[in-house]
Amino acid sequence: MPVRPILIYGDDVLHDHATEVRDFDQKLRDLVRDMFETMDAAPGVGLAAPQIGVGLRVFVYDYPDDEGNERRGVAINPSLFITPTEVRETTSADDEGCLSFPGERYPLVRSETAILRAVDLEGAPFELVCDGWFARIMQHEFDHLNGILYVDRLDDPFMKDAEKVMRKSGWGKPGNSWMPGEDDIDA
């Protein structure tokens, strides 16, 4: 089954620190293929392995640059270096969403620049210098590998609203998921 269910906020694997990948084998290739298919079906611009119940330090991304050039790839065992986050009021330009907190968007200030260092499916190291929304995506997916969802970073009154959504939706506990392409969720 290539498209996998996406876990919703509250499942333990989403809140745990993911484990480093040690085996670059067919099982990893199958996982990455399924992650791309799941991300595309959702649709999303990034997906971390914990979001589909796999506690490994892997995420995929797909976000073209300003000229429309494809930036699609996988980051395995990544490190992320960010510029200091600007202290300022949030705006609608800061609105962020998450496939593991579907249907909601909240503003969150992120660093404007990030440097991602990781390895690919062959174990070859690479580096990406990212800015703007691409830097936001890298920070968002990297957070997932450390057991942090973007709603965990929200300030009031947005945190209170997110908590209200969780209570009303029955989230915040293990066992909730949705299936891209089948469930009618505006992720």
Automatic annotation (TrEMBL):
Keyword Repeat: no
CDD domains: Pep_deformylase (cd00487)
One GO BP: translation
Entry keyword set: Hydrolase, Metal-binding, Protein biosynthesis
Species this protein is from: freshwater metagenome
Family stated for the protein in its record: Belongs to the polypeptide deformylase family.
Pfam families referenced in this protein's UniProt entry, alphabetically: Pep_deformylase (PF01327)
Protein name in the entry: Unannotated protein
